[in-house]
Amino acid sequence: MPSHGSLTKAGKVRGQTPKIQAKERHKEVPRVRNRTEYEKRVLKQTAQRPQRAPRRM
Question: If you ran DSSP here, which 8-state letter would residue 11 be given?
Fold first, then answer.
């Protein structure tokens, strides 16, 4: 089966690249995250809506 390039060179670059440790990532506490999402979705949207005139009956 023909291949593109020599199989002896496979993985050369990955093998030469120095290993870097992954950074520790922390997520927000769900309570805080839900609160910020609520503020973003609900509170800011209601503040931006124009006030409608009251309906007359």
Answer: T
